[in-house]
TrEMBL record:
Annotated transmembrane regions: 12-33, 45-63, 75-96
Annotated keywords: Membrane, Transmembrane, Transmembrane helix
Higher taxonomy: Bacteria, Pseudomonadati, Bacteroidota, Sphingobacteriia, Sphingobacteriales
Keyword Transmembrane helix in record: yes
Protein name per Swiss-Prot or TrEMBL: Uncharacterized protein
Source species: Pedobacter psychrodurus
Length: 102
């Protein structure tokens, strides 16, 4: 019985992850309809989608494998910090790599 409950909870979390990704990607899509300040192209949406999906799946992996404790919290914070740093680098180039957006 526990395996069925675990599978159901994991399936629900995956659905939530995909819904959040779609919602986040809808923000620039909607903004592009009202202003010229937001100018994403298809590769921007694909890159953001891959980045968000990989982060969401990494978080799901940690939640499934590390049940509780400080290590789980630290790993989740590191994953989110990596997401924010990569996103900032792609957006404005805070580190000056060739991947910088501006």
């Amino acid at each position: 019985m526990k395996n069925k409950e675990t599978f159901s909870a994991g399936k629900l979390r995956i659905t939530i992850i995909l819904s959040v990704i779609a919602s986040i990607l809808a923000i620039p899509l909607i903004a592009m309809q009202f202003t010229n300040e937001v100018a994403w192209n298809l590769s921007d949406f694909i890159t953001a989608g891959i980045l968000l999906l990989s982060t969401g799946l990494a978080i799901e992996l940690v939640i499934r494998n590390l049940k509780t404790g400080t290590l789980r919290t630290v790993v989740l914070i590191v994953i989110l910090l990596a997401l924010f740093l990569i996103w900032a680098e792609l957006a404005v180039g805070i580190f000056g790599t060739p991947f910088a957006g501006s």
